[in-house]
Amino acid sequence: MIVNQWVPAAHRGDAIGDSARGVRDLLRSLGHDSEIFAMTVDDDLRDEIRRFDDPAARRGDVTLFHFALPSAMTGAFATLDGGRVLQYHNITPAHFFAPFSPEIFRLAVLGRRELASLVGHVDLALGDSEYNRAELDALGFAPTGVLPIAVDAGRLTRAPRRPALERLLDDGLANFLYVGRIAPNKKIEDHIRLARVHEHRLDGYARKRSRQPRRTAGFRAKDARGRPGIEVMAGSGIDGDGSDVAVGQAGSVEGPAQSVVGAAVDAARGIYGARDPGVRLSYVLSSVVGV
Q1: Where, residue-wise, is CATH 3.40.50.2000 in the chain?
Q2: CA triplet 253, 258, 262: central angle to 5 degrees?
Q3: H helix or E strand, kind and range, residue 36
Q4: Do 289 and 223 meet the contact criterion of CB atoms below 8 Å apart?
């Protein structure tokens, strides 16, 4: 059996692209012919991802379409002769972007309209979580199910050691790591609030017993062109020395990132004041904006 997958954009390191390659490898191990077709392909994936304009893209006995943004694939998918399986990876509701980015707002609106246009044109609609499956149900898809993202945990367990990073992080502080985009719906400011709860409920006694050096809570990121674009830090000097909280912004910030930076600054000011957070929040951000 030929079981192909369609992905609008094939990137190495993102959840959808990595999951699609994992599913392809599993299908091949089970004896099926399986290829991935994409409209745009990263240079380092051109040897294993085929272009969507290849006629073979329409020849699958079953085609799994990964839906996360509007594209020309949507209409083509609805007309396939073989089995059609939709996997929905969620589109951020457009209202989050309305005050900040008309272009992203437009993409989100179009994406959800295209998703709804597939109702009645798929044999099976899958969400990559129960939350997304329920959204498919509400739109009228049937039958629906859940197919989680295929995660290669070995990328973490086999990761090489980074002694310099270990020395930085292994200093007795609790480390909170966020990986994701700077976008209003991601609620980055809640991570600062989480750090405050951790300090107050779990780590407060230890902090009161010792004088701690200067600590910071915040995030750094790059703008849409890869330049340093955002820095928000909050912290204090040694416990009880009365230092004011240091909160700042640096660089150029555009679109929805503005609201995120503002929310994080407000959260830091309101929660920590001049107190030592007692934790370090690190943010690894894939991009400043995007759906």
Answers
A1: 3-154
A2: 125
A3: strand 36-41
A4: no
Place of tokens 């839906």: 67
All residues at 6 or more sequence positions from 219 whose CB lies less than 8 Å from its CB, including other chains: 178, 188, 230, 231, 232, 264, 281, 282, 283, 285
The string of DSSP codes covering 131-162 is HHHHHHHHHT-SSEEE-PPP--THHHHTPPP-
Residue 129: count of CB within 10 angstroms of its CB: 15
Gap between the Cα atoms of 137 and 127, Å rounded: 10
Q: What is the mean pLDDT of the chain?
A: 75
**CA dist 50 to 29, 40, 71, Å?**
19, 9, 17
Nearest CA to 289 out of 226, 227, 230, 223 is that of 223
CB atoms closer than 10 angstroms to residue 131 = 10
Pairing mode of beta strands 215-222, 228-236: antiparallel
Over range 84-111, report the average pLDDT. Answer: 90
3-state SS, residue 37: strand
SS3 124: strand
Residue 214 has pLDDT above 50, yes or no: no
Q: Which residue in the block uniquely carries the two structure tokens 């503005």?
A: 258
Any idea which fold 3-154 has? Answer: Rossmann fold (3.40.50)
Stretch 29-44: mean pLDDT:
95
Can you tell me the mean pLDDT for 277-282?
Answer: 50
Mean pLDDT check: name the lowest of 64-68, 103-107, 153-157: 153-157
What pLDDT score does 152 carry?
A: 81
Report phi then psi at 133, rounded to 5: -65, -40
Lowest mean pLDDT among 122-136, 190-204, 246-260: 246-260
Q: pTM (2 decimals)?
A: 0.69
